[in-house]
Every structure is written in C-alpha cells, then in structure tokens.
Design brief:
single chain, alpha+beta, seven-stranded antiparallel β-sheet, 26% helix, 34% strand
Length: 184
C-alpha cells in the first residue's frame, strides 16, 4: 500500500511541469491560377482582354459584369458616351464614387494610366481597408467614350481575408486597362 501511495505521489509531482509549446506563425495561403487572358469579344464601342477565370455577363447599354465565382467577386463595368461636354461630369462622378469609400478605407493610392497609342487615359484607385470596394478605375478617350469599373466581393469587407484575391483582381483590372481599345 505504501509503495502504491509513493507511486501515485511520484506521478503527480512529475506531471506538474509546465511544458510550453510554441505554435509556429502561420498565414492563410491562397493560391490562384496564373491568369490566362482572352479577348472579351463584346459587341460594344470598346473591347479588352479578360481573364479566362471570369465569366462575362452583358447588361444593358454595354454595361458588363466580370464575375469570378471562385472568389465570390465581380468587376462591374459601366459605359457612357462622352457628349455635350459631359466629360467633367463623368470624371467628377467617377472620382466621387471612389472617395465616398474614405470612411472605411485606410488609404486610396491613385495610379495614372496613359496609353496614347490606343487613346486610353484614366486612373486606377486601389482602396485599402475594410471598404465595400477594393479597386475602382475609369478610362476614356476624352472625346467619345468613358468606362468606369468597380471591384466588389460578395462578403462582408474584411481586408485581411480578401487581400490575396483583391491583389489578383487588381492585376486583372490593370491588364483590362492596358488592353482596352475603342471601336470607332
């Protein structure tokens, strides 16, 4: 009996040691396929190359949605004609729409876009933070055509969670702008 009590006491005292287990730091690893682009082939006054991962939905008046089902995201494209000196109004509306997100955005870096060969001039806004949109842009030839685009995810904005997808889609938007051409 005495040896049994001694054994129990020995087990209890030897098991009271605090062992610290250090967990390795980890990050969510999201990998997306390398983009593969094709001509959007739309019957509109403009065309561009789009990622084959997206599906194109044509709306009225050449407004388009590029839907990314695997990322639960959509790039909304709106087309307007430049006429009756409305370019200032179109620019103002595009910029206002972007800066309405400053309430939730941490910062909004702007990148000027100029492609004189294709007569495409515009601005790309990357919106960082828990804003509803993660990127917006506009492109125009300053004479006849004006396109705006916005990237939205179909989820509550959590910048840390959607950041990898946002970066991937921002690159698609850059490619869209670089390949945008007007049909005269």
């Amino acid at each position: 009996m005495r040896s049994l009590l001694l054994l129990i006491a020995l087990i209890l005292f030897s098991s009271c040691e605090d062992t610290v287990v250090v967990k390795p730091s980890a990050a969510l690893r999201l990998e997306y396929p390398a983009p593969n682009y094709k001509d959007a082939g739309v019957a509109c006054p403009y065309t561009f190359d789009m990622n084959k991962q997206a599906s194109l939905v044509l709306k009225n008046n050449c407004w388009l949605n590029l839907e990314y089902p695997g990322m639960n995201a959509t790039i909304y494209l709106s087309y307007r004609e430049v006429k009756n000196n409305n370019l200032d109004s179109l620019l103002y509306d595009a910029q206002k729409l972007t800066y309405d997100h400053t309430i939730k955005a941490v910062d909004i870096p702007e990148k000027l876009f100029v492609n004189p060969d294709n007569k495409v001039y515009g601005m790309l806004y990357t919106i960082n933070g828990n804003a509803a949109t993660q990127a917006q842009f506009y492109a125009t030839d300053s004479v006849n055509h004006f396109v705006t685009g916005s990237l939205y995810f179909k989820s509550k904005p959590n910048f840390d969670s959607i950041y990898p997808a946002a970066v991937y889609l921002r690159n698609d938007i850059r490619h869209l702008m670089e390949t945008l051409t007007w049909k005269e």
